[in-house]
């Protein structure tokens, strides 16, 4: 498939996805291909808009579009439309932003710059994979197959996405009605769980979801720590409730992402479709699509409502990408730590430096770090990659 027209087509769609110019029909086509090729990294050659000139042109166009909107908005505040932004000012603003972005912008596409990553020539760290474990209320444990990507929980048994039964030999067992099950993904693991009501849950690395084998009460209630993307099956008679951190999300049927890691400063709920209600003690907030509710887990402060969120960025992990926009190095490295199961050590104080960019999660860690080094903001050293005697480490430095 390497030189096939089909591959060229998907490279083209991927470049449009990265550029946010992909149409809904194209996105469905790309997703269908991607869901059947999770293990296949897609390299996008420079001919698909990786050149610096094309990048500048795209940024300038977006800035121009934004300025046009702003100009129209400002015009509406004054009579006779007296507020206008001339081209010299637009170009000056765009140029200043391009210069600002120049130190922290990186992309997935092929590059010719030689990064300086140290200590990766003889070994490397593979990306995470499909792996998870189910624990039942009676203490029984089933290690799910890493050859499959999803498990269905039906009224009395477990099956994989290919129809085979989960749990072999002595592990094969029936499930009691309402029995509590906990799905756990380790660092470097991800898995999809389809609950008995048809709700689909994608678990990110280092996450835990507890749920009953059947929803027998007047509401469907689950608990989450870590990160998960939900596509909730509609049932007006039984609201779906997710308990996480200090709060809960109540929905009827919708798509949303919850990020609630204990080592993050705040939990975040991002809504893609439908509507959800966030209950934080006595405080309640209803989200619309494109909004995000943020709650500080350390201070327990009131809900912060973020509007006009890039939902694609919020669920990029589910679609197989790291996607960062003005994101601090410390936050980026926590995601790398969970996905590659490594420890992060800071030799220099770079935690607050911000980076932008997109790269596949299904590349070895050295490839991801090389992309980050292309920004010129950070460098890395990989230590004890074979893991003998002590933990694998990535050292962050200037």
Automatic annotation (TrEMBL):
Name the Pfam families on file: FecR, FecR_C
Q: Which residues cross the membrane?
A: 87-108
Q: Which domain of life is it from?
A: Bacteria
Q: Where is the FecR protein domain?
A: 183-277
Keyword entries, A-Z: Membrane, Transmembrane, Transmembrane helix
Task: Give residue ranges for domain Protein FecR C-terminal.
Answer: 321-384
Fetch the PANTHER family from UniProt: PERIPLASMIC SIGNAL SENSOR AND SIGMA FACTOR ACTIVATOR FECR-RELATED, PROTEIN FECR
Protein's recorded name: FecR domain-containing protein
